[in-house]
Each structure stands twice: as structure tokens, then as C-alpha cells.
Amino acid sequence: MLPTPGANQREGVVFWRSAAGEWRSTECGQPRAPLQQVIAACESAVNQLGNRHESSRTTTKQFVVREQTGPLNRSLGNLADTLQKAGDAADDTDGRQDIQSFADHSGNIARTCELLQTDARNSPNPPHIARQSEIHVAHSLETEPAGHRLNVMATIFLPLTAGSVAVKLRDRR
Predict the structure, then answer these.
(1) Which terminus of the chain has fewer Cβ atoms in its 10 Å neighbourhood, N or C?
(2) DSSP readout, the chain?
(3) Domain 15-124: which topology?
């Protein structure tokens, strides 16, 4: 039911309130419970992505979080908007309160997901990058003397080699 990256089709669940005030859905059982389950599943998915983002050490793992927050963020925004409009259109007070409660909760989750998506997009894990930069600097400092020695050796032996080749070529004539 939750969106996944690369999936072009999703299973939908329809919820409605009958004229008698009873909640109905395309799922079996009490419709109110599946709607709560959908919202709880969305909240759990956002929390899991948040934990993955916080613990990601590589840009590959961060990209996975970025990739998964996009479809989830759109779905949550659509869910919150739909519930808000349904609450505004509800005729009775009980139905309006139920829907408004769901709309508020899903709106909060949508905002959390949007913040997570923005954070995942904008922060490439600065502590990890700083640590990697330190490691690269240390390696550069270790290899610098070897590079200097190679340059000195090339400076000395290249003219000698070129001179000896020139002498051999001259002697062949």
C-alpha cells in the first residue's frame, strides 16, 4: 500500500462514510481501523527512513533515503489534502472530527517526511565527509615524500639516460 521507488502501480484503499454515519472501506473489517493502520504504516515508514538517514555513512545509503522519501512524501501530502477536504465536506460533527483528526495526524507525518526529504537532499553527512577528507589528506602527506624522491630521481637519471642513448645513436652511424 505504501509507495516504493520504481513501482508504477499501487493498491488503493477507499474509505467512505455512509449516509447512516457508518464508516466503510474496500478492506475487510472496521474501516476506521484500516485508515488508522495506513496512517500508522506511513508514520513507521517515515521513522524508519529517518533512522536510516541518521545512520547512513555513505552517499549510496543516503541516495536510497532520498529516493524513497520522494514517493512517500507525495503520497502523504495527497493523503493529508484528501482528508482535509473530506473533513471540510463532512456534514455531521462526529464525521468531521474523525476525519479532521486523521487529517491532522497525516499532515504532521507529511511535514516530517518533507523535512526528512529536504535534509536528505541537502546534507551529505558532513561529519563523514570531514573524516574522509582527513583520511585523504593523511594519505597525500604520506605519498608526498615518495613523489618528491621520484622527481629527484627523474631529474638525475633522465638526462643521463638521454645522453647515453644519444651517444649510442651517434656511435651507430
Answers:
(1) C
(2) ----TT--------EEE-TTS-EEESSSS-SHHHHHHHHHHHHHHHHHHHHHHHH--SHHHHHHHHHHHHHHHHHHHHHHHHHHHHHHH--SHHHHHHHHHHHHHHHHHHHHHHHHHHHHHH---HHHHHHHHHHHHHHHHHHHHHHHHHHHHHHHHHHHHHHHHHHHHHHH-
(3) Methane Monooxygenase Hydroxylase; Chain G, domain 1 (1.20.58)
Rounded average pLDDT over 115-129: 74
List, for residues 15-62, the tens digit of each pLDDT value.
Answer: 777 777 676 777 655 555 677 888 888 899 999 999 988 887 777 777
Strand 15-17 relative to strand 23-25: parallel, antiparallel, unpaired? antiparallel
- Mean pLDDT for the stretch of residues 7-12: 72
Band of pLDDT at residue 114, cut at 50, 70 and 90: very high
Q: Where are the domains of the chain?
A: 15-124, 126-173
